[in-house]
Amino acid sequence: MNDLRAAAEAARARAYAPYSGFHVGAALETAEGIIVAGCNVENASYGLTICAERNAVAAAVQLGARQFTRLALVTDAPVPVSPCGACRQVLLEFGGDLVIESYAGDEVLRWTARELLPAGFTGDVLS
Ligand code: THU
Known about the structure:
With about 130 residues, this protein is α+β, with helices and mostly antiparallel strands. The protein has helices at about 5-10, 50-60, 85-90, 115; strands at about 25-30, 35-40, 70-75, 100-105, 105-110. The protein has one domain: Cytidine Deaminase, domain 2 (3-Layer(aba) Sandwich). It is globular, with a radius of gyration of 14 Å. The mean pLDDT is about 95.
């Protein structure tokens, strides 16, 4: 198993998902080659749940990283899962070329952030 996937699997094992029972782990590789992971963290007020991908982004940013090359995603599902819409928007913030790799068993699906959110909203229009 590659290091990025292994980091995502380790994060999945720490997921806090008492309501859905669906454990998710994500691991980002930064431009400097550092790996930063996140897991989903649910809440009794369901809508406050934060996905693994967004927690990985938050963890990486607080470490000072803003350029990411790859994100590995693993879940409890038997097939590779694609990120939810909110996570697509947050991933696109850090560049459309980011490669998202979703794993399940021997299967892997890959997309860029731009492919997952074509015509997505970006900060380009805000200046
Ligand atoms: N979840 C993620 O962490 N990432 C996704 O891309 C999809 C969904 C989490 C949110 C919730 O804790 C559980 O999976 C079920 O939706």
